Amino acid sequence: VLENQDLQDLIKPQKVEFRSLNFNSTLHWQPGRAREARDTVYFVQYKVYGQSTWQNKDDCWGIQNHVCDLTNETSDIQEPYYGRVKAASAGIYSDWSLSCRFTPWRETMIGPPMVTVVHSNKSVTLKLQAPRSPYKRKRGSKIPMTNYYDLLYQVFVINNLLDEQHRALVYEGKDKVIKIEDLRPGVSYCMVAKTYVPALDRSSAYSSRQCTVL
Hints:
By secondary structure, this protein is mainly β. Helices cover 7% and strands 48% of the residues. It has helices at 2-11, 104-107; strands at 14-21, 24-30, 41-48, 55-63, 67-69, 81-89, 92-93, 97-98, 114-119, 124-129, 132-136, 142-144, 152-159, 168-173, 177-180, 188-197, 202-203, 210-213.
């Protein structure tokens, strides 16, 4: 019996946590301390905070992965959720390991905008597109994150003649088309943008660089 109890403890999943980008929300965990237990499989359940019954996530029932997609199960973005995972190996089941409480609206990370560059002689025009959520409108298009938050765009210019690390903030606001003027011809510039959520005081990562020489 002692051996079984030891195995239960050794295979119990560790560090169960939600990670979320633009409401694509996945539950992650690490295997227990028994790394050599290769035949370990995992079982995932979830529930809304305050509910008494846990729901099985059928796609993540007896899986070998250490990640489970709960995007559809957490689509009520203002609700707080919990996830939990247990492991089984050689017919022995661990106890459940619980995540922290997860509220998608408050905790999802927002991605950067998509940036398209159009340039003329002395200016560059940037077109920005908000990141999209996984949730769809009735017609099938994905709902942009601007439906859920008041988003601002921050646009930075990197003058490659100067310092690679120096990013000058040239615009902050809601416009989707931004014109950057007074750039010097023959100089290589790169543009990057971020999404900023004032309500949460949170910024996205930088978008991929768009570089141009006028």
